[in-house]
Design a protein that fits this description.
- This protein is an alpha+beta fold.
- The chain contains 8 helices and 18 strands.
- Strands 1, 2, 3, 4, 5, 6, 7, 10, 11, 13 and 16 form an 11-stranded mixed β-sheet that branches. Strands 8-18-17-14-15 form a 5-stranded mixed β-sheet, with no helix packed on it.
- The protein has helices spanning 34-39, 43-50, 82-91, 96-104, 163-168, 173-177, 195-198, 228-235, and strands spanning 2-8, 11-17, 22-25, 57-59, 64-66, 73-78, 109-114, 125-128, 135-136, 139-145, 151-159, 161-162, 183-191, 202-209, 212-220, 245-248, 266-271, 275-283.
- It folds into 2 domains: 2-66; 73-283, Fumarylacetoacetase-like, C-terminal domain (Fumarylacetoacetate hydrolase, domain 2, Alpha-Beta Complex), CATH 3.90.850.10.
- It is globular and about 60 Å long.
Length: 284
């Protein structure tokens, strides 16, 4: 079950995206924000009941999809896939030991990624830093958490990264990760699916340049080392998120050292149980 934020005729609404590419306008049933809906422990059942009420519908193609966040902070987990650990160790002799240790440590690496208002949505441009020489997308499963730290759903995330800046010094991580247009989420939130099912999903990345493919890769959510509950529990330690949070869970797809993004590249991230998030690239 997929719930989205969308805009039509200047008005922002909340909708249910059906299998026949139709958006059921839940705003007509006074569901005008995602956040209160995600606070409902039976959100999937509630949406299912609302969908039976004959609410207005519109074709998905006529709905401008917005990032599926409102006031939630976006955080990220690092080095949660073995491929990510290997890549981080390769990119920097200086930091290799730290990356090796955090992969198997009890405490995960967690870092702030973006405020909600800075998140890029479907069809918008993600950014690459003008002062970076090695920029890559990081396709990730994103957990959508309510204010109690419960995983209410999943969406697709792109944790844009400047690998040369991060590789130069671990203390430069915020500059490598947090900048204009460095975080994309969408196209919607898939709710009501247990972790055991999500771990069977496949994550795919395709990057096109001048209309042709320049990189493709895939991995399985099942390769994620840590459980969803573990990541959420550590994020909520000694922290309050009154509006909930979104937590990117790390990447298992890493382009080779010889590859870097360029302006006008097209990035498509697909997660088999959710859908696709597509963005172009611009220099910032």
């Amino acid at each position: 079950m997929n719930v989205c934020r969308f805009k039509r005729n200047g008005a922002i609404g909340v909708g249910l995206v059906t299998e026949d590419s139709t958006v059921v306008d839940l705003s007509a049933a006074h569901v005008t924000q995602l956040t209160p809906l995600l606070e409902d422990e039976d959100a999937a059942a509630r949406v299912g009941e609302l969908a039976k009420q004959g609410l207005p519908r519109l074709p998905l193609a006529k709905a401008e999809l917005l990032p599926p966040v409102e006031e939630q902070e976006v955080w990220a987990a690092g080095v949660t896939y073995r491929r990510s650990k290997t890549a981080r160790m390769e990119e920097s002799d200086f930091s290799a030991t730290a990356y090796d240790r955090v992969y198997s440590a009890e405490r995960p690496e967690l870092f702030f990624k973006s405020l909600a208002q800075k998140v890029v949505g479907p069809g918008e441009s993600v950014g690459i830093r003008k002062d970076a020489t090695w920029s890559v997308p990081e396709p990730e499963l994103a957990l959508v958490l309510n204010s109690k730290g419960r995983v209410m759903g999943c969406t697709i995330g792109n944790d844009m990264s400047s690998r040369d800046i991060e590789g130069e010094n671990l203390l430069y991580l915020p500059q490598a990760k947090i900048y204009s247009r460095s975080c994309a989420l969408g196209p919607w939130i898939t709710i009501g699916v247990p972790e055991t099912t999500v771990r069977e999903w496949t994550i795919r990345l395709a990057i096109k340049r001048d209309g042709g493919p320049v990189f493709t890769g895939q991995t399985s959510v099942g390769q994620l080392r840590r459980s969803f509950e573990e990541l959420a529990r550590y994020l909520f330690r000694s922290q309050d998120f009154p509006h909930g949070a979104v937590l990117l869970t790390g990447t298992g797809i890493v382009p080779p050292e010889s590859f870097t993004l360029r302006p006008n590249d097209a990035i498509e991230i697909e997660i088999s149980g959710i859908g696709s998030l597509c963005n172009s690239v611009t220099a910032v």
